[in-house]
Amino acid sequence: MDPAWSLPKGHVQPITNMVKKFEDDAKRILLAHGSGGKLSHQLIKSFVKKFRNLPLAKLDDSAVLKFKGKLAFTTDSYVVDPIYFPGGDIGKLAVNGTVNDLAMVGARPLYLSASAIIEEGFSLNELEGIVDSMNRAARAAGVKIVAGDTKVVGKGGADKVFINTSGIGLVDSGVDISSKNARLGDKIILSGTIGDHGIAILNAREGFDFRTKVKSDCQPLNGMVSEILKVSKNVHVLRDPTRGGLATSLNEIAKQSGVGIEIEEEKIPVKEEVKAVCEMLGFDPLYIANEGKLVAFVPQKDCAKILNAIKKNKQGKDAQIIGAVVSRHKGRVVVKTSVGGERVLDMLTGEQLPRIC
Amino acid sequence: MKFVDEFRDRTIAERIIKKIERFDSLKVNLMEVCGTHTMVIFKQGLKGMLPKNVNLLSGPGCPVCVTSQEDIDKAIELARDRRMIITTFGDMVRVPGTNSSLEKEKANGADVRIIYSPSEALRIARENPDKKVVFLAIGFETTSPLIAASVMDAQKEKIDNFFIFSTHKLIPPAMEALSKSKELNIEGFICPGHVSVTIGSDAYRFIAQKYNVPCVIGGFEALDVLQSIYMLLRQIKENRAEVEIEYFRAVHPQGNIIAQQLISEVFEVTDVRWRGLGIIPRSGLRLRKKFYDYDAEREFQPKVKKGKENPDCACGQVLRGVKKPTQCKLYKRICTPENPYGPCMVSSEGTCAAYYKYG
Amino acid sequence: MCLAIPAKILKIEDNLAQVDMAGVRRQADVRMVNNVRVGEYVLIHAGFAIEKIGEKEAEETLKLLREMA
User: Fold this and answer.
1) Is residue A1, in this structure, part of any structural domain at all?
2) Most buried among A113, B159, B175, B265, by the most CB within 10 A?
3) Segments forming the whole domain that contains residue B71
4) Comparing C-alpha atoms, which of B339, B315, B338 is closest to residue B327?
5) Hey, CA dihedral for A353, B1, B7, B10, is it positive or negative?
6) Size of interface B-C (CB pairs under 8 A)
7) Which chains touch A (3 or more CB pairs under 8 A)?
8) Packing angle, helices A124-141 and A38-51, rounded to 10
9) What are phi and psi of B110, to 5 degrees?
């Protein structure tokens, strides 16, 4: 994790302090920052200086880029609340999210665009903090932010700040990774613990007063993917189980590939604290969001070396083989429970809500 | 987690299943009364582990599922009042009323907040003196003591913008209503563990004695549930009808006296309507006179159309084990998980919803 | 109907205790359990301790569970 945003030891909820510090600051975003006039230019220039790269510095209407090969192109918008959370912030998330989407088709992420919609009155300092965080995340992932835009909307027109990022990456020849490609006999590898991001956000957002050390797992996965591809190009499916969690990703793969999936509950790594919060609120960690984990569907013969490659990576030390593609129940995901039962793992209708029963 | 993981052990589970399999000559319907038991059975896949002669039916013990349409509509009506902050357990948020839900009202601008504990509702009331803070008080005997405690705290602290809308219900009267019916087709009850923490095992004795139905109070881990099933089968085989406690690490014969006192200090027993079961005498709790100032219904008088439930809804019979969901006229035609009529469809693990999804 | 999970008591002040659930900490109201002590386990439901969990009884339950018929 980036040291600047790591939490000081002993502090359980430093976020509120951080926000308070920002609130004390008088510098705020005005509608004029979005008017296209002087203030707009100042703001944009200050970002360009941070992101420092040639295509962006030209300040043309478009970045002009050279490519040779198969392109991957993706976009995503980030509206996370709160914008600062244990383990990350909206800026880091916006970069890593798009980097990971590119990595999940086996692409090497190269360039990102970033566009922010900012609420009038938002603290300039806080915005700068987010931009710095994006910058650090981009460097860590080895991508350049080459195009950007900001718009300001009136108070109440947005909640603090929304960020959209798009990304372009290159796919090497011989790599064909898609949710449609799961094959009978494939082994399923999960790169680490699940539920960390969702529980960290929940704790930061809701007034449940749980104190935990759980941090978001927000991190780039392109390094891990490139190491996987180094040992084998025989990867059928990659997916980062974000919204809807592992259960949703597996269901999508089962449907898109038209195969049956079986996983073993016992093999799925979940932090004790994440488990405890889930028990308390009646959540199932399988449905909770992650922002730095992947599932890989790989042929049995390459499974061991791919698992090894993942485990060598710092982000993949808890990786496990959690299941396989089977010939039964096509289009469905079945979990073998720790007591020896079986259940169908369904898609969720809507978000999980905390329950008392 | 201590007291959790050791009760999910696979080898012990297999051992209990073997014990259960010895009763293969008994073809029985057993009811898990409690919604949390239903969840455990579903989540751990216990049904598939049991031999075919043991059939589990899900009972009326999911508090939101048995909340009447009229009460849901009242909660929604309260949420529409912009003076209010509605505080609620997450369970209530998606339950459909006649033509809305709290979730939909929130989208329309209502201030609906999900909380984990009623003490958070009190805190919200303290922090928002210019708002009326209503807590939707649902739940059975496990939950009502804490709501009672919060109402007493509000009175002590003179917090005058805190109100509760009580739809609290009592489990033994519902079990009696089920047992009374001549068409009951249930040979044993798995009684709710955490309700029993409050009311004790003695509270079910009349069911076992008067209606000759064996009862076992079970804990909430997979092994607890399997063991409870085994204990019920043993009673049936031996022709006994008693109340046994499998969950004796937390449940005592007399229950928790302090919790019982909290309930009776703040609430009094009243007749209430259960979704799918109709009005059950002396099965609900309403605030006592000295706490009328905290009664959201009295204070704000939400106006809703008299609740009318579809006469074709067969939930009562499904709950009693005499009808399968597929034998209900409404099932799948009008009654779906998106647009549920009875409690068996409201709960995602209710008998009808499970049939709909997997049947 | 009612989720309640085991938690260890860390500290008690009047009716309020600090409890730990596998590393997750929270305040819990303990007015409903008599003579509860630091180090003991209670069941937490919606922020309230509803009962102590008997360690001895839990052991005994496990013994019964393991028993052959």
Assistant:
1) no
2) B175
3) 65-170+255-300
4) B315
5) positive
6) 126
7) B, C
8) 30
9) -70, 150
| Chain B residues inside the 8 Å CB shell of C43 | 194, 197, 250
Partners of A284 on chain B (C-beta within 8 Å) are 43
**Residue at B130 is within a domain:** yes
Residue A286: closest CA among B43, B34, B345: B43
What pLDDT score was predicted for residue A1?
A: 31
Phi/psi at B108 (nearest 5 deg)?
-85, 0
Please check whether residue B139 touches C, CB under 8 A: yes
Phi, psi (rounded to 5 degrees) for A41:
-60, -45
Please name the amino acid found at residue B145.
P
Nearest-Cα distance to chain C for B194, in Å, is 6
Which range of residues forms the domain containing residue A32?
18-171
Whether residue B310 is contained in a domain is answered as no
Domain membership flag for residue A203? yes
- The 3-state secondary structure of chain B reads CCCCHHHHCHHHHHHHHHHHHCCCCCCEEEEEEEHHHHHHHHHCCHHHHCCCCEEEEEEEECHHHHECHHHHHHHHHHHHCCCEEEEECHHHCCCCCCCCCHHHHHHCCCCEEECCCHHHHHHHHHHCCCCEEEEEECCCCCCHHHHHHHHHHHHHCCCCCEEEEECCECHHHHHHHHHHCCCCCCCEEEEEHHHHHHHCHHHHHHHHHHHCCCEEEECCCHHHHHHHHHHHHHHHHCCCCCEEECCCCCCCCCCCHHHHHHHHHHEEEEEEEECCCEEEEEEEEEECHHHHHHEHHHHHCCCCCCCCCCCCCCHHHHHHCCCCHHHCCCECCCECCCCCCCHHHHCCCCHHHHHHHHC
pLDDT digits (tens, 9 = 90+) for B259-303: 999 999 999 999 999 988 889 999 999 999 999 999 999 999 999
- Reported ipTM: the value is 0.97
Q: For chain C, which domains are there?
A: 5-66 (2.30.30.140)
**Contact residues of C toward A, CB < 8 A:** 1-3, 5, 21-27, 44-46
Clarify whether residues B136 and B213 are in a common domain. Answer: no
Q: Identify whether residues B123 and B163 lie together within a single domain.
A: yes
Tens digits of per-residue pLDDT, A42-65?
888 888 889 988 888 888 899 999
**Tokens found for residue B351:** 């008998």
| Chain C residues touching residue B250 (CB < 8 angstroms) | 43, 51-54
C-chain residues near A206 (CB < 8 A): none
In this structure, the answer to whether residues B290 and B156 fall within a common structural domain is yes
Q: Nearest CA to CA, how far is A176 from chain C (Å)?
A: 42
Say if A346 is an interface residue toward chain B (CB within 8 Å). Answer: yes
pLDDT tens for residues C36-69? 999 999 999 999 999 999 999 999 999 999 987 6
Name every chain B residue with its beta carbon within 8 A of the beta carbon of A207.
115, 120, 123
Query: How close B110 comes to chain C (CA, Å)?
Result: 24
pLDDT at B307: 67
Task: Please indicate, yes or no, if residue B305 is contained in any of the structural domains.
Answer: no
Mutate to test the interface with B, among C2, C5, C59 (most CBs of B within 10 A): C2
Does residue A218 fall inside a structural domain? yes
Residue A355 lies in a domain: no
**Structure tokens given for A165:** 């990022």
Which CATH number covers residue A281? 3.90.650.10
- The answer to whether residue B129 is domain-embedded is yes
- B342 touching chain C per CB within 8 A: no
Question: What is the model's pLDDT at position B305?
Answer: 87
| C12 shares contact with chain B (CB less than 8 Å) | no
Residues B144 and B265 reside in one and the same domain? yes
Q: Say if residue B288 is in the same domain as residue B331.
A: no
Spatial separation of the C-alpha atoms in residues A357 and B105, rounded to whole Å: 23
